[in-house]
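Appendix B. One record, verbatim.
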Amino acid sequence: MKSWIDSLLTVLAAEGEAMLVTVAATRGSAPREAATRMIVTPGALHGTIGGGHLEFEAVRIAREAMRECTVGAWLVRFPLAASLGQCCGGVATLMFQRVGARDAWPNALRQAIDEDGEAAIAVAIGSNTPCVVARAARCADAGSHSRAQSALRDAFSSTHPATRLVDENDCSWYIERMARPDFHIVVFGNGHVGRALVQVLSTLPCDVTWVDAREHDFPASVPGNASIVASDTPEDAIDDASTGSHFLVMTHSHTLDFDLTSRILARGDFRYLGLIGSASKRAQFERRLRARGFGADALKRMTCPIGSGATFPAIRSKEPGAIAIAVAAEILQLQEAICSAATGHRARA
């Protein structure tokens, strides 16, 4: 997945500077959640904080600040109904932060997350103090600001929210914990449904491994969050996948589908196993899987049929795009439930 950090580094390398707009806090209904980001340059936008009048005003403020060479970071509070006329009616507090190619913290943050799996940042509001990057093993020094230092340490605790605004004397701090993305999907098959599914998944915050032996059947270009594996031994991708991955089996061969399905079930540590096909295909596979020693509990973890007509019975279309959208919704529902159970109140500031 191309994260906002990767996008920011790419923009800085190309243009030298940018404005980073972050949803620092929300109250009530708001277009996007805290920690959502948008990168603004004089001629382009990367990411979104929800569109509408809020985003229009944020872009205007960011570009005006770039023209006036405003430095540091600052907050702007937007009552969405009162000041912007947006019907969601909540309050969004945005942080504006000028970032230049010489700033070291984006690379430090990328490195910390890559190496440790997580990191925290502290941004001093209304100050030219650069962003502080902290690692759980050795929290960075926030100077004499004891509350900010304490908030950085607390950021790594599951009992504290992932984002916070901390006031201390004449300075405010935006604190946020970030973790390496844990949303991995392995798609077997580059047929019509496989292609449609990978395109749909390109709009989600996930990493996709796209596997097929037919190397020349892959499209000329693939989404930025997808990696192609062209292999005569596609089952190796099962062994290489991380714990908690999502698997979609939709190859051109029922024999290969069965071999892949049985290997995924044998591994066991997956979050989702989807097999394309009909109810009769499922019945046939279940008989063969039982003969290989798989019990009822294992078979219940296999989703087949997938997508339209199955999880969403009101959608009867067998168009590749309809199936892809329904399958992506299945996976997204599961991922949201897992994240909510694991993080609880950490999802919001």
